[in-house]
Each structure stands twice: as structure tokens, then as C-alpha cells.
Design goal:
By secondary structure, the chain is of the alpha/beta class. Helix content is 31%, strand content 25%. It contains 5 helices and 7 strands. The longest helix is centred in the N-terminal third of the chain and has 16 residues, at 45-60. It is globular, with a radius of gyration of 16 Å. The structure holds inosinic acid.
Length: 191
């Protein structure tokens, strides 16, 4: 069965493809001729995930899902949250985002944070939301070079390594997106 994942992020695609297994052919927007940026201007992760999924559905007519992720830092009142991608600049500048977050946390002792992912699935005429959360801490400096985004500065609970010091499988087993995707996959299998 074909299903479109509303992302062109190669890291995310790889993470999700591993969980989804062989019963689905995972397509990207580009595979379906959708090359423009998909709008994500909603005030919540759930709103953005739904908006992206609805956009892909209207352009392709296929079953699809979209995710939106935020890094929610306790000492910053949940920031950057839904603004995680555009924290430092209007662009999608991972380096600048990490730098700004480390700067804002420079004199903060409470390092606790969580990654939260919302996934919106449109299958047939149903729209369903799934959530995945992982708690952890913001490191004092960058650690490791795997992964993407804020991975080098996030240490998941129970570990002394950042996501960027883990293999894909290690990260997937505990990560926000891994948890949300496993709920999605369970749902798809039972359908
Ligand atoms: P989006 O879900 O692609 O909009 O991501 C929002 C922001 O969170 C972007 O800055 C991403 O780089 C970052 N992000 C999303 N997922 C992850 C992850 O698994 N690890 C680290 N950063 C992430």
C-alpha cells in the first residue's frame, strides 16, 4: 500500500521507514510531484501536522501522514516549542538554532526538556492524531555528529549520550518520533 509522508527530510524518512516495515511503500511529496514548501503556520504542533497532512491529501488524493516536532525546554517556559525550526532565524538554520538555545541556557541549572512529536494521519476518510514524547536534558555543549536538528544537545533520560551519539536504532527506540510512529504503525496494522 502506498502512503505519503509529508516531509523531504532524509533523516526523518529513514527513521520512519525502519518502523513502517515492508507492508507500505513510503512516498515523499516530491515523488508525487509536490515540490513547493508545505505551509506550517499554525500555533500548535497538532495544528501544523494536520495542516500539512491535509495539504498533501488535497494535492495527491493519497493516504498520508505528517509530523511536527518541538523541543520544549522547562526553564524557557516550553520554548522553542512549535517555533523550534525558526527559533533563531526565519530560515531552517539548525546551527543557529542550537547556538541560540545553548546561549539562552548558559546560566540555567535546570536543563530539563522534552521532545514532542505530533503525527496526523489521513487514511480513507479518517483523520487521527498520535503523540510521542521523550524527556531528557539540554547538554552544556554539542556532543556527537549523527542525526540532525537539536540532536547534538539533547540527552534522553537514562542515557549519558546525546541523540547525535546514538545509532538510528538506538535513537528510534526511545525518541519522540519513534514512539509516535509506533502508535501510527499499530493503528495502520489494525485497520
Ligand atoms: P519539524 O518537525 O521538521 O518542523 O522540526 C522542528 C524543529 O525541530 C527543526 O528545527 C528540526 O530540526 C527539529 N527536530 C525535529 N525532529 C528532531 C529530532 O528528532 N532531533 C533533533 N531535532 C529535531
Amino acid at each position: 500500500m502506498k502512503i505519503v509522508f509529508a516531509t523531504n527530510n532524509a533523516h526523518k524518512l529513514r527513521e520512519v521507514a525502519r518502523e513502517l516495515g515492508d507492508s507500505y511503500t513510503l512516498l515523499t511529496p516530491r515523488d508525487c510531484g509536490v515540490t513547493e514548501d508545505i505551509p506550517e503556520n499554525e500555533p500548535t504542533l497538532e495544528g501544523n501536522a494536520l495542516a500539512k497532512a491535509r495539504y498533501i491529501r488535497s494535492r495527491t488524493g493519497l493516504d498520508c501522514f505528517a509530523d511536527d516536532t518541538g523541543l520544549e525546554v522547562d526553564a524557557l517556559g516550553g520554548e522553542p516549542g512549535v517555533r523550534s525550526a525558526r527559533y533563531a532565524t526565519d530560515g531552517h538554520d539548525d546551527e543557529a538554532n542550537k547556538r541560540l538555545l545553548l546561549e539562552r541556557m548558559a546560566s540555567v541549572d535546570d536543563r530539563s526538556a522534552r521532545f514532542r512529536t505530533a503525527i496526523a494521519l489521513i487514511a480513507g476518510d479518517e483523520e487521527i492524531l498520535f503523540e510521542g514524547v521523550v524527556r531528557g536534558a539540554i547538554s552544556r555543549e554539542e556532543m556527537g555528529s549523527n542525526g540532525f536538528g537539536y540532536d547534538p544537545i539533547f540527552i534522553p533520560e537514562g542515557f549519558d549520550r546525546s541523540f547525535a551519539q546514538m545509532t538510528d536504532d538506538e535513537k528510534n527506540a526511545v525518541s519522540h518520533r519513534g514512539r509516535a510512529v509506533r502508535k501510527l504503525v499499530d493503528y495502520l496494522r489494525k485497520r
